[in-house]
Amino acid sequence: MVKPTVETLVTGGAGFIGSNFVLHALDTHxxxxxxxxxxxxxxxxxxxxxxxxxxxxHRFIEGDVTDAAVAGPLVRASDIVxxxxxxxxxxxxxxxxxxxxxxxxxxxxxxxxxxxxSDRLRCFVQIxxxxxxxxxxxxxxxxxxxxxxRNPYAAxxxxxxxxxxxxxxxxxxxxxxxxxxxxxxxxxFPEKVIPLFVTNAIDRxxxxxxxxxKNIRDWLHVEDHCRAIDLxxxxxxxxxxxxxxxxxxxxxxxxxxxxxxxxxxxTSLITPVEDRLGHDRxxxxxxxxxxxxxxxxxxxxxxxxxxxxxxxxxNEWWWRPIKxxxxxxxxxxxTQYGRRHDGRA
Length: 345
Ligand code: NAD
Ligand code: DAU
Hints:
Elements: E1 6-11, H1 16-28, E2 32-38, E3 58-62, H2 68-76, E4 80-83, H3 90-95, H4 98-116, E5 123-129, H5 152-171, E6 175-180, E7 182-184, H6 193-202, E8 207-210, E9 216-221, H7 222-235, E10 240-244, E11 249-251, H8 252-262, E12 270-273, H9 288-291, H10 301-314, H11 316-324, H12 327-337
Parallel strand pairs: 1-2, 1-4, 2-3, 4-5, 5-6, 6-10, 7-9, 8-12
Antiparallel strand pairs: 9-11
The structure holds nicotinamide-adenine-dinucleotide and 2'deoxy-thymidine-5'-diphospho-alpha-D-glucose.
The site of nicotinamide-adenine-dinucleotide has 30 residues, from helix 1, helix 4, strand 5 and strand 7.
C-alpha cells in the first residue's frame, strides 16, 4: 500500500543539525515532503542543502520564524513540525542577547500559536537543549529535574521549552520537547569548539582554550541526534520531555589533545584564554527514558571525531570562506604566516 504523503516543516534547516535532519529525513522517509524555513542568518548555509535543493520532495523558503505571515500558513499546512531555528552560540548571547530572545522565545511563540489553530498537526518537536538544566556538578539530569539555565542562550531556550509545554497543557498542541547534549559532525559552524579547533589546527593557528580546560561536555553525533528525533516523532508521547545524550563526557582539554593528535599538530598550539562568563562546568543527561524506546547512539566518539575531522579536512570549500569573512581569523592568520590569509600581497 502506498503511504500517504506527510508534510513536514523543518525550521532552521539550513543550519548544522537542521540540515543533517533534512538530509536524513528525505533519505529515510520516501513519503515525506519537507519544507525548510530558514532566515539564513550567519549560521544558515544554503550549501548545507545542496544535495536536495532540486529534490521535488524538498522546498526551501527563506523566511523568519518570527514572521507570522510567513510561518503561520506553513505550520498550518504541516503534519509534523520540527523546530530547530534559533540563535545558538553561548558566547554571542553574552555579547548581545536580544536576538536570542526574539528568535528563540518569540519565534517559538509564533510557531506554537499557529499550531494551536491547526487541525492536521500530529507532532510539534520543540528542539531544546541540555543547557536548560544549568551546570551539573554531580550525577545526570533527568527530565523531571528543575531547570536552572545560567546564560542568556540557555535562558531563552528554557523559556521556549516551557512555552512549548504550556501550549500542550493548555491548548493540546501535540508538543514533544527534546533536550540534546553537545552535537558534533559535518556542517557545524566554525565558532563552536570542535570545528573551531579543527580548522584552526589545520591552519596551524592557536586553539583558544577557556579557563582551566576542565569543563565537561557530553558529545552526541549529529546523526544519532537525528535518529532520536525521528524515533520520538514515531513513539514519543505528547507533552513529554526527552533527554538525548551521546554518553561521551569529555573534558575540553582532552578533546583538544585528541583533535591535535588526529591532525598531527603540536600541543604548543593550545592557548589558555580568559574563561567564558558564567561558564557551565559540566552537562550530563540521563537518557534512560529515550533508551527505553529502543534508541542507542551508533557512533562511538573516537570514530565519530575522526570522521568529523576528516570531513573538515576534505571540505575546506565549506569552511574557509566562512572563516575568511571573519576579521579576527585574518589577523590570526597574518600573525602566524606574516602574510594575508588569501596569499595576496
Ligand atoms: P545553528 O546555529 O547551526 O543553526 C541555526 C539555524 O537557524 C540557521 O540555519 C539559522 O539561519 C536559522 N535561524 C536563526 N534564526 C532564525 C529565524 N529567526 N528564522 C528562521 N531561521 C532562523 O544551530 P544548531 O547547532 O544546528 O542548533 C539547532 C537547534 O538545536 C537549536 O534550537 C539549538 O538550540 C538546538 N541544540 C543544539 C545543540 C548543539 O550542540 N549544536 C545541542 C542541543 C540543542
Ligand atoms: O549542550 C548543548 C549546547 O552545546 C547547545 O545547546 C548549544 O547551541 C551549543 O552551542 C553547545 O554549547 P556549548 O557552549 O557547550 O558549545 P561550545 O562549542 O561553544 O563550547 C563547548 C566547550 O568548549 C565549552 O565548555 C566552552 C569551550 N570552548 C569553546 C570555544 C568556542 C573553548 O574552550 N574555547 C572556545 O573557543
